[in-house]
Design goal:
Blueprint: E1 5-11, E2 15-21, E3 27-34, H1 40-56, E4 63-70, E5 74-75, E6 80-81, H2 95-103, E7 107-111, H3 112-123, E8 132-137, E9 141-147, E10 150-151, H4 182-186, H5 188-197, H6 203-211, H7 215-239, E11 243-247, H8 254-268, E12 277-280, H9 287-296
Parallel strand pairs: 1-4, 4-7, 8-11, 11-12
Antiparallel strand pairs: 1-2, 2-3, 5-6, 8-9, 9-10
Helix pairs in contact: 1-2, 3-9, 5-6, 6-7, 7-8
């Protein structure tokens, strides 16, 4: 039987998701659970194996490999995680080889932002382009970059940690230990914390009320848009993409924030960079799943 399918695994600080994906980037079956962060890497590996059995039922003989989208930093040369800000206890863990042994499949490990960029490049909003920047606004802020038709990896595969560029030296301490990182200021986690301080249930609640015209919520969303636009302007200068693609949970509010983002880009980006489109991820929250699975297709 033809080995024409791959597993996509998206390891997040909040949720773990798995899917069976075909060569056209279509999800055939998908499952998710809350990530057992407290249990550490071995508990999460157990969750992966269990979900793989669930989604792989009826497809096992056709699955050639698995691709894992993981938060970074990662040592891709050796298939190990580093000191992950969103997943404590994963220092120097051999994720690729451990999971490969448990699943009896070849495993490709990739940074979550780069995996999502690959998904959008191959099958989503960046399809057909040679230069894209993908950024996810979620538990943290991550990203991935395609330059001249190639995924950018850098030394040990650790390039494009865009969430950890400093945008305010007087800003809050980040989970990475730095101060004023893009992630520490503009992530969905930080947005939710700010929303709760203003009396909203969470960030999602604030966005809903902003849509309904609540002035306090609208101000919060406007401030978030300003920080995102400030960071995006820097990304345009760094990578000169044809398009900037936004994913993650907070991308659902991109329509509310677009005017503010555009204002910051017009203010801080050089004229040659200002006309670049900022668009939502076409694959939604499946960008990383599909992108990681696409990287594993080389084993098919």
């Amino acid at each position: 039987m033809t080995k024409d399918l791959t597993l996509g695994i998206d390891l997040g600080g909040t949720q773990l998701r798995l899917a069976v994906i075909d060569g056209q980037g279509q999800l055939l079956r998908r499952a998710a659970v809350a990530t057992d962060v407290a249990g550490g890497p071995h508990a999460v590996i157990g969750q992966m194996v269990k979900l793989a059995a669930e989604v792989g039922e009826d497809f096992n003989e056709r699955i050639s490999a698995a691709g894992v989208s993981s938060p970074g930093p990662l040592d891709l040369d050796n298939g190990r995680t580093s000191d992950l800000p969103t997943l404590p206890g994963w220092l120097n863990f051999p994720l690729r080889d451990t999971l490969s042994e448990k699943l009896s499949l070849p495993v490709v490990l990739e940074n979550d932002g780069v995996a999502a960029a690959n998904g959008e490049w191959k099958f989503g909003a960046g399809r057909g382009l040679n230069n894209i920047v993908y950024i996810t606004i979620s538990t943290g802020i991550g990203g991935g970059v395609v330059v001249d038709g190639h995924l950018m990896h850098g030394r040990r595969g650790m390039a494009a940690h865009v969430g950890h560029m400093m945008i305010d030296p007087a800003g809050p301490i980040c989970g990475c230990g730095g101060r004023g990182c893009f992630e520490a200021i503009a992530s969905a986690t930080n947005f939710s914390i700010a929303a709760q301080k203003l009396g909203f249930v969470n960030g999602k609640h604030a966005v809903q009320l902003a849509r309904d015209g609540n002035e306090k919520a609208k101000i919060l969303v406007t401030k978030e848009a300003e920080w995102l636009g400030y960071g995006f302007a820097s990304l345009l200068h760094l990578y000169s993409p044809e398009i900037l693609i936004v994913g993650g949970g907070l991308s659902s509010a991109l329509d509310l924030m677009m005017a503010g983002i555009r204002n910051q880009i017009d203010r801080y980006a050089m004229p040659a960079f200002r006309e670049i489109q900022v668009v939502p991820a076409a694959l939604g929250d499946n960008s990383g799943l599909i992108g990681a699975a696409a990287l594993a297709m080389k084993f098919g």
